Each structure stands twice: as C-alpha cells, then as structure tokens.
Amino acid sequence: MLTGKRILLGITGGIAAYKSAFLAREFVRAGAEVQVVMTRAASQFITPLTMTTLSKREVIIDMFPPQPDQPAVQPTRHIDLALWGDVMMIAPATANTIAKIAHGTADNFLTTLVLALRCPLILAPAMDVDMYLNDTTQRNIAALRETGCSVLEPDAGELASGLSGPGRMPEVDRLFSEVVKSLDNAHRDLAGRTVLVTAGPTYEPIDPVRFIGNRSSGKMGFAIAAAAAQRGANVTLISGPVTLRTPRNVRRVDVATAREMASAVMAEFAAADMLVMAAAVADFTPVRSSEQKIKREQKAGGPFMLELTENPDILKTAGARKKHQMIIGFALETENGVENARKKLSAKNLDVIVLNNPLAEGAGFGSDTNVVTVITASGEVERLPRMAKIDIANALFSRFAPLLP
Ligand code: CTP
User: Are residues 153 and 76 in the same domain?
Assistant: First the structure.
C-alpha cells in the first residue's frame, strides 16, 4: 500500500510517543521507507534504539553529533531529508513543537527540517486538555492550518493527568490512514504545471478611508493554492485584502482593486496551465475616488449619490484569450444556481464552474467547509457533500488535473 513511499516520522516529547513505535512498524509493514526524527524530550519517552530497530534506519535527534567520536554528518542533511520525504507526520506533536513550527523556530533537527520541507506535513497534537484548549495553542494550530498543514483533531477521553477532554493522540490506524490520504493528494499530478489562483474580495475605493468590498474571507482560494502546491505545481496566488497567511510554497501577489487583480491575472495568464478564479471580484467601482476624505457636511441634507461604473470581467477576458489553459470559475448564486452557473460557464468560455450558495448549511464566507456543485463544459453536474475547503480543492484537482492538455 505504501511501497516506495518515503515517510518522515517526527516524534516529540509526550507520553503518546510509545504509540509511534506501532505507527513506524505499520508504515514499514506497508512497504514504506521510514526516517524517524526525534526531539531530545521524545527520547525520554521512547528510546531511539526502539525506533531505529523498528524503522530500520538510524534515528536522527541532533543537528550536530553529540560525541566527537561519532561519524560526521552531512552538513546539509536537514535539507536533503526535506527533499527526500513524500510526507511528514509529527506524532505526537507537543504544544511546544507546534508553537515553534507556527513561528518558524529552528532550534533542533526536527524543527529545522520542518522549515525546509516541501512535502505535506501532518501534525497529531497530543497534550493535556488545558494545554490543548489554551488560546495560544489554538491560535498556533489555526495559523498552521492556514498555511496548508494538516493538524488532526485529537481524540477526547481520559488523559495521563487524570483529567478528561480533547488531547489524546488519535489511534495508529487513524494516523496511518491520514498519511495514506495525504499521499493520495500529493501524487504530484501537477508537477511542472503553473497554476494561477485568485482569492479574496476586492476593495473599490470611495475615498482614502472608505471602500466597497464584500465578505469573502479568501479561504477557498487559499485552500486551492495550498492543494495545488502540495501536488507539485508552481503556484501564483493573486489575493485581494485578506488576513490569511500564505500557504507553503506559494508565490503570493497582493492586490486591492478589481482592476489591479485584472492586470495581475492577465500578466500571468499566458504562461499558466490553469486559472482558478475563486476571488469575489466587485462588479462595480466608484467612478471617482475622492482624493480627500469625504466630509459629512459635503453630503448632508440630501441623498448621497455614489456613481458606479463597471469593472472588467477578469474571467471573461481570460476566457476570450484562452489557448491551452484550463479555466475554472466560481459562481455564487442564491437562487437558480445550476441554471445561472451554466450560463456563466458558457458566457465566460470556462471548462468548469464551481457553484456555491453562501446560504447553504456549512457553506459561505469565513467557513472552513463548503458545499459545492461542480459543473463542466461537457454538461456533467456533480454535487459534492459538505467538505473542508482543502478537501474540495483536492477533489477538484483529482478530477481535473488528469484532463490538462
Ligand atoms: N469574476 C471576474 N471578474 C468580475 C466578476 C467576477 O473574474 N468582474 C469571476 C469570479 O471570480 C467568479 C466568476 O467570475 O469566478 C463568477 O462570479 P459571480 O460574481 O458569481 O458572477 P458575475 O459574473 O459577477 O455575475 P452576477 O454577479 O451577476 O451573479
């Protein structure tokens, strides 16, 4: 099942580390090559000898050999290993290591390796309930998820301290299947491809402090960029104003207005293999943006008329210039969804349109999940169940990456 796959297994210092011995054994049984990387604290819970024996490879703990009589290590071993792995799982992941990774600290071999990693990274947090629910830990986990790391939900139950709640490391079979799932999504079917993604809202200025915007959080587009990068693509993410972190291995271009987004997209479109327009582009913009802040007295006493003019339709322009590119658009509809989305698909010369209704349960702005219907130019219509946005992104690529010319 995992024949030929290269797994980096990180182990940090927690009582659940003993389960990682079983995990390593399962990976090896399934045909994978396993390189175990431990922290010093982890070696208090499970011995490096146990892990070396089970993984059939020498465990790495230190950046530098602790004893002068030990063989010298290759100076770039952390980089070589980062490129070697097909996936990395850290199980258990302590609050401390999660915090370090979220902030880019590289103070031991494991965290240094993580910083150089290109493959998918899965973390299995395991700690006491209060440490897990601590606001700082939760913020670190949210930050890691934003950059495209998969952070598993711990199991709830009795903990080593005698307290009860979320904090238990998931069982070995679940960890194993998460690695299998991640490898499925990382089969590098977009290697060598250039994928252009747009995300977020646009801000159309009224004056230096006010704008017309919308509620798009950018999460769907960022998930698409993260998934494409994990599948090996060169990804450029053109983003409107959002508060999200840039996914790992993604080049990001920030824009504010629809016109800026249009020029950024058109500058990159010719060289792209695929364009995914997940941005919520404003259709209209103020005719004039006042150079000075508009004062209340200027407009008091009567209706305030704000004159708007049409913005360029970025997708339509791209559709008209399409050569080899596959173009995936999004449609936001609150009624007659499939019919309206089909019209957009043909009017904008798209290959695929992803329909979503922000009013549906588990969908919409700011949510981590979405409910979408995928409609293709050849007429297929498939409604996907409610899924995490990253899973929707992967479902789209699993289906459409093989169709790229
Ligand atoms: N889009 C675009 N340029 C615009 C407006 C929209 O490229 N000026 C793209 C969006 O990124 C999305 C698709 O077009 O992928 C559909 O956007 P949507 O707002 O649903 O459709 P509109 O064509 O703007 O039509 P309407 O607002 O009337 O539904």
Answer: yes
